[in-house]
Write the structure tokens for this entry.
Amino acid sequence: MIGIVMIGHARIASQMKHALQHILGEQPLIAAVDITEESSLESVSELLRTKIRSCDVGDGVLLLADMFGGTPCNIAMGCLKAGHIEVVSGFNLPLLIKAATMRNKVESVAELAGHVVDAGRQYIRLASDIAIGGGRV
């Protein structure tokens, strides 16, 4: 099973894990790393590596960062390992749900990353574009 580790500003990673488990129930091999004002880069980097090891059972780990270019993503990028650890930035709840439900159905972390990026994009919508009549107020 591919592990999933989220990293983000404030408590977004742990709250997304909480939301995921609210929807899907308890999920194995999923961890969260929050970066708060009190966090040092060194402690966050070490915690992230510890979480990656705890979620890696040999099939790889998908790292989800909240925002490309931000500190959490930059730290995650330092863990990138071709074919084994992939980083996806800008995660949202639909993307996370797709990752959790597909990680046993794909052959690689890269394949999972492709599917979850597509899912994340698919669920970003402007409501007025899909409302009846399609008109904006």
Remarks:
- The chain has six helices and four strands.
- Residues 100 and 112 are 10 Å apart (CA to CA).
- The helical segments are 12-24, 41-55, 71-77, 93-102, 109-122, 127-130.
- The first strand starts at residue 3 and ends at 9.
